[in-house]
Amino acid sequence: MNRRDVMIGAGALAVTAAMPLRAAEPLISKRPPPSARRFTSRAVEQEILRVRAQIADPELAWMFENCYPNTLDTTVKLGTVDGKPDAFVITGDINALWLRDSSAQIQTYVHLAPQDADLRRVFHGLIQRQARCILIDSYANAFMEDPTAPSSLSALGDKTDMKPGVAERKWEIDSLCYPMRLAHGYWSATRDKAPFDALWAQAMARAVATFREQQRKVGPGPYHFQRVDKSPTETLMLDGYGTPTRKVGLIHSGFRPSDDATVLPFLIPSNLFAVSALRMLAQVHNEARGDAAAANDCLTLATEVEAALNAYGRMPDGQGGEVWAYETDGFGNSIFMDDANVPSLCGLALLGAADRNDPLFRRTAALAWSPRNPFFFEGKAAQGIGGPHVGLDMIWPMSIMVHARNSDDDATVLQCLRWLKATHAGTGFMHESFNKDDPNTFTRPWFAWANGLFGELILDTLQRKPALLASPL
Hints:
Helices cover 41% and strands 10% of the residues. By secondary structure, it is α+β, with helices and mostly antiparallel strands. The strands form six sheets. The chain has a four-stranded antiparallel beta sheet. A three-stranded antiparallel beta sheet has the order 4-5-6. The chain has a three-stranded antiparallel beta sheet with strand order 7-10-11. β15 and β16 form a beta hairpin. α10 (268-289) runs antiparallel to α11 (292-312). It is globular and about 60 Å long.
């Protein structure tokens, strides 16, 4: 069983059918009525009105209005803990908080935080909630609302050190990188020191220490994970420690951002993300807390991992050049592929983990968006990248959004918008994945991260290429 089978019932990954829009069908809002929305931001509502007015295509405008506020409408539960804001943000159809997903979901609104005190309370609450989660277990990827509750995955009998409040304990580097990026984004936008208290600093120290533990310079480290499951992507070999590596300074990752097991433990996109996230964290330590020692600790580790990446993270592209590998082991073995889940090779620039104009990144992203990547699919409905998580021939809309964000070519961005418009299966929302030949076959009708990324794509297009939105697609 995988996480979705456990959390929302058996068969949750089965594809869902929906009817495409008919030509004359009215575009009625798919948002919950105002009284049923989890949280409403005045600034976000104004942003929806501003952006909609500049989108000439009615269906695309309707999709933006449905998708952009989806996290606030449906996934945020705001409260207090010890007199401080608390925000529990679920992924959508899974009633748990993923450190990665929740960070990405809320980051969508960070540019609006200076305008809205209530929205700042959500950021404050999530940053604090994530800190408490990391202090429960820095190796866990997902958490439950009640920090004292036994794991909802205990029935699986995972062989790991499961703790109360943990929903799943798959060690993924990006689970700690995303809260660092969120903290930096919020601090840069608002200069609000309130979330960055001693509790937060303690959690960030634990996160940095976890990265160091997973360099495994002395022994295998404390993390191990095994699960009895029919899919090999759900467990780690060799007593739960994963494939052997040469210890070169890179950080080991048991699992990918898809929650699938790594094949080779040095997951290069996540190590690149760690370098940038550590530098972002150092800035927050310096500027928000005046903590030069903590900042220097982050910068020292970032420099070490960056040097190891340059020495061991690249591979030949088959055309006389080099690209970033997807996974390596330090012995000279490497895998080239890409998975739609970000951090991916294609998604490095989106995260600030690569300069979008860097030739090495451009070559890598171009090769990943090609048949050289075994998880690049071309079909009647679209082109895009998927991954092992939901099987072959399933394109993740997330990959199309990232491809559009990477491109300076009008035709490419326009094609990506057309693909997204043509593959939502009449729902008005983004999905986890859809079949390359039949978008009415899709997974996860309620996936807030993808909805937020679609909103970000529209905002990015409006900023970079407003003329593309000024005419119907």
